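Notes to self, IclR family transcriptional regulator:
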Amino acid sequence: MGQEQHRATTRVLDILEHLASEGGAGKTLTELSVALDAPKSSLFPILHTLAQRRYVRLDRETGRYSVGISAYVLGEAYGAGRRESILRRVQELMEQVARRCEEPCQLAILDGENVLYIGKADSDQAIRMISRLGSRLPANATALGKALLSGLEDDEVRQRFSQGLPRLTDHTITDLEPLLAQLKQVRENGIAWEEEESTPHLCCVAVPLRQRGSVFAALSVSMPLFRATPEKREGVSNCLREVASEINTLAEERGISLDIL
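result:
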């Protein structure tokens, strides 16, 4: 799986990723210590330096840390040039999906055994999935995750979940063989489903995105079960297949790869 990660660097990134995934409310030093399972004595000097460099912001009244302006500048630099053009087109296609399906559309990549949300287009529905960019969920519990895992060999899936499959709800698949059977179906028909495996009363359908045969991301639509009629499920699946085909063509023609998405 490559060289061992540098511990101090990993801790810096853990802090930034956790603050990004938690939204704007921020976290205290104590809360970060608990969430990251790290002593406050080791986190404080890192946070102090990050705050000085404005990668995190400290609210001195509440003692809460949140993502700072320097992190935003880095994010803007990432979107420059060709990446900006490609990502803008992908976002436009996601917004088309959200309008046609009248449900939110999400874009994600695989991060270890988790799904990392990197794009979203909301719908106008009053009842819809609430997800945040930068947040992570266990891949085994989501349609996005199953679409992404379908690009791996079974042995690699086993390796990634060597510590077991996390449970989010009573419906989450926690046995490896049923998960592998579902991944086989995704490889055959190009569609991944989950019902109440990550969130009660919610279902989700997803499609893998491919470049030169390799899955580099996945696209999904989520909806409450009471709106998930057979007709709507079919319509959502067809819509995702169409848009995935266009993104796959874009990936081939303009070189989308894992270092861009």
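- The longest helix spans residues 230-254.
- Residues 80-254 form a domain with the Beta-Lactamase fold (CATH 3.30.450.40).
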